[in-house]
Amino acid sequence: MFHQIDFSHERDLNIDELCRRIEAYYPDADFPLIRKAYAFAEKAHKGQMRSSGEEYIIHPINVAGTLIKLRMDEESIIAGLLHDVVEDCDVSPEEIEKEFSHGIAQIVVGLTKISKIKFKTKEESQAENFRKMVVAMAKDLRVIIVKLADRMHNMRTLQYVSEEKQRKIATETLDIFVPLASRLGINSVKTELEDICLRFLHPEIYYRLAEKIAMKKSEREAYIGNTIGIIQDKLIEYSVKAEIKGRPKHFFSIYKKMSARGVDFEQIHDVLAFRLIVNNITECYKSLGIIHSHFTPIPGRFKDYIAIPKVNNYQSLHTTVIGPAAERIEIQIRTNDMDEVAERGVAAHWKYKEGMVSGGSNLAWVQELLEFNQSVENNAEFMSHVKNDLDIGGVFVFTPNGDVFELRHSATPLDFAYAVHTEVGHKCVGAKVNGKMVPLKHTLKSGDTVEIMTSKGQTPNKDWLNIVRSSKAKSKIKAWLLRIERDNNIEAGKETLEKALKLFDTTLKATMKRGDLDKALEPLGAKSTDEVFIHLGSGKFSADKVISAIPGLKPEDIQSAEEKLKEINTLSTKLTKSAKRKAHKDNAVIVDGMDDLMVRMARCCNPIPGDPIIGYITRGRGITIHRGDCTRYDTGDVGRQIHVEWNPEFSFKHPVNIRVITHDRPGILSSISKCINNMNVNIRSAIAKSTQDRKGSFVFEIEVKDYSELLKTISGIESLEEVISVARA
Ligand code: MN
């Protein structure tokens, strides 16, 4: 947030100045060795020029300068001086090891590897970039810190390269190095990189912000001074001693806020941030209390990163309050140690005491990261570690040949199979993870090696939708099932219509030959006869609906049609019933092999009919139904999962009877049916009568979602010309 450390390009920086700065925090450093590294690099780069027209050596000097500002150890600084000699000057790593040390040579080799990585800047390739980066940084985190220092100086001198290169390098920095700096907690580097990226990627925004902030400079400085005075006075009243600073937030964070809220700079109020550095944690909370009792806090803006540190170990209290003159101001409160960690992140853990360097061994997560890098498998784990923090979480698994696949968090072997190839997915019968057979719904972990077994006879089934996590695999399975379902529905639809037509003493073949079925398409709102069969087979169309749309079957009088329609209704219900599984009408969900179980829908994912679902046995509460892709249910305990599916018999709609009185005209039944159907309302049955005064009386049982749908349907029917009245029966 604050640029406490200034990383500007220093034209006149030289080795004497570097040594002077090192001495200030690390008096026992090996200065002859540092000077030797400088001389070595200067000789190696002799004659090479930077795009800025300066001697090349100014680059490694500035990189070392940044590492000194981060107070890194002497090996890192020396590696900073030498970081380009293998890449650009054909110096061998062996030579560096001989002249300097094994550790320094390792860092330079790591950096050379990183420089050869072709970074992809598309978002989906980010994971791959991290993977490469992690492989390159091998066992030593300092590789990344030196790399960040290198990138920092290149960004600082970006104006000297072509515009195309500026965009490419800035994009890469924002995609890869900013998240890395963030994960390593080096905020000073992160914020500086972000602002330079903004300057080259969105110069119009950057310079407008710079101008706006510069415009009110004296006004703002007076305000900051005044506010610091007020806070200082209040703290002294309670005998808290604090160092207080106030600055505008860095541009990138203002820019992020503007784009997140879709507003202009003028509408961003909290551009000022204050930082209180106090002596200990007790004083942090005490100061917070004092601030909150004096200024009104904005609800929801208080964050306690002291009690719950960020994953990168950042600790601080954050709050936003209404400051003097009703300005919103952000206040951070932390101790000196916390501030060190916030600015220098992982670099803060290379400590110097009486000439001893301790490489952050007291820091558990650094240790973890380092240990994660011991093997290829664990590299993947590390990546998922880093990636989870960066919110692009996923798991990395390997094929037996060592190819890497990135899958969604909690992915299964079936996801992996579909990631390899759709056909591998469709034919998947089993999987081995790290050489052991596992069930298809096994949860994969980063670093797993997965081997898929296939069989020619295998086909996907509905349950697979509950097993896979990735949307790609889901859509492949759905597409396959839909194709199968379509074929089945066509068959079932043909069968139903055939039986219905028999009642009118004709056959499907004859009806189609006469072209009468084609004539029914328009009133049914269908595009093809196949569509009619599919809707009939799936139950979307009732048999009587289709029959009444076929012109050749118009009954002589409505009276006699009533009997036939009734018959058809019973028949079509029978057909659908036999096709479906036996199920309780009043349960929305069928639970495998169990009756009368208490079932409730999970509130976290609120499944609705049609969603892939999974049942989870909850102690004392029966079965909770989650969506298949719900991340909340406990995947750890496979034994408590139970197979469930939606009950096709369960009616999610309410049946209502309506009576329609019409003038007795031919085709009236069909036009009312069509009208109801056009509103996407299903007709469950229809009873037709003709009255003595030559009027038609129909009772339709329709299914509606709610009252408003009923009203809509009624008024729709009323608008038909032949209709006299419509009412609930
Ligand atoms: Mn470099």
Features:
four-stranded mixed β-sheet; six-stranded mixed β-sheet; 16% strand; alpha+beta; 729 residues; elongated; 49% helix; binds manganese (II) ion
Describe the 3D structure.
- This protein has 729 residues and is α+β, with helices and mostly antiparallel strands.
- It has 29 helices and 23 strands.
- The strands form seven sheets. Strands 1, 2, 3, 4, 5 and 6 form a six-stranded mixed beta sheet that branches. A four-stranded mixed beta sheet has the order 15-17-16-18, with no helix packed on it. Strands 21-22-20-23 form a four-stranded antiparallel beta sheet.
- The site of manganese (II) ion (MN) has 4 residues, from loops.
- Manganese (II) ion is lined by residues 59, 83-84, 150.
The structure class reads alpha+beta
Low-confidence stretches: 352-393, 575-585
Largest sheet entry: 6 strands, mixed
Share of residues in strands: 15-25%
> How much helix is in the residues?
40-55%
Radius of gyration: 36 Å
Instruction: List the bound ligands.
Output: manganese (II) ion
In round numbers, the mean pLDDT is 79
N→C terminal distance: 70 Å
Q: How many DSSP-defined strands?
A: 23
- Count of alpha/pi helices: 29
How would the global form be characterised?
elongated
Give the SSE layout.
Blueprint: H1 15-25, H2 31-44, H3 58-69, H4 74-82, H5 85-89, H6 93-99, H7 102-116, H8 126-137, H9 142-156, H10 163-183, H11 187-201, H12 203-215, H13 217-237, E1 243-248, H14 251-261, E2 272-278, H15 281-294, E3 296-297, E4 303-304, E5 317-322, E6 328-335, H16 336-344, E7 350-353, E8 356-359, H17 364-372, H18 376-389, E9 395-398, E10 404-407, H19 413-420, H20 422-426, E11 428-433, E12 436-438, E13 450-454, H21 464-467, H22 471-502, H23 508-514, H24 516-524, H25 529-538, H26 543-549, H27 558-579, E14 589-591, E15 599-601, E16 613-618, E17 622-627, E18 641-642, E19 644-646, E20 654-663, H28 668-678, E21 682-690, E22 695-704, H29 707-718, E23 723-728
Parallel strand pairs: 2-6, 15-17
Antiparallel strand pairs: 1-2, 3-5, 4-5, 5-6, 7-8, 9-10, 11-12, 11-13, 14-19, 16-17, 16-18, 20-22, 20-23, 21-22
